[in-house]
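Hi again,

Forgot to attach this to my earlier email, sorry! This is the prediction with adenine bound. I've pasted everything inline since the attachment limit keeps bouncing my files.
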Amino acid sequence: MKYYVLTLFPEMIEQGLGTSIMGRAQSQGTISLKSINIRDFSENKHGHVDDYPYGGGAGMVMQPGPVYRACEAVEQEIGHKARIIYMTPQGRVFDQKMAEELAQEEELVFLCGHYEGIDERVLELKVTDFVSIGDYVLTGGELPAMVMIDCISRLVPGVLNNNMSAEVESFYDNLLEYPQYTRPEEFMGMRVPEVLLSGHHANIEKWRRQQSIKRTLERRPDLLEEANLSKKEKQYLDQLLRERAKENNEEI
Ligand code: ADE
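Structure tokens for the complex follow:
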């Protein structure tokens, strides 16, 4: 996967994604990351890339020219049209499903705005996807782009050590991850669940799936509507719901 990030703060991207798993993936070549400074495409002698908004109002707006030229330069380097993702709270909200879809691309271009945003005309001309990372407003698109790059990269083959873990972790089958334990066997009087010490793989697997279902019901019941459950697992969920109703003296 090749990422290109158009930004006024390339060092933020390089530092943010230069360590740990993302750093290793870049050294290995499973992903590549190029930050492009939009300011390098300014034709203004002071290197300005923003100006006052037409019609008045607070703040500054990024001008279309430098952003347009930066996009063209990246498209030229790639050699064909690529998806250009503009990070904005006005976009479709990013989720694991979108990450899975984007992980299939060969290249992804992220456009990060600052100030009050980017002149609408260049967005119309160049952007293919408007994406938000959640219903809150940040000062720029860099952190959202880093969030997306991190999430998409762990789905790229070879980025994670163990090919299984991308699947098993939270949101696989739309369920939250089961609880994890390591040594010591007892901590502050709390023991590791016996089944995990049993070495009985089928029982461990069943317990983990049940814990995932229980946890999802407690913490993110909205996810269960789309969860992939076997007949037995559906029965387990019904049992949990009945127990809960009983505790609350509810009818179901
Ligand atoms: N830029 C500012 N806030 C944002 C958000 N929530 N998602 C994506 N880009 C943004």
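The radius of gyration is 23 Å. The chain has a mean pLDDT of 95.

That should be everything now.

G.
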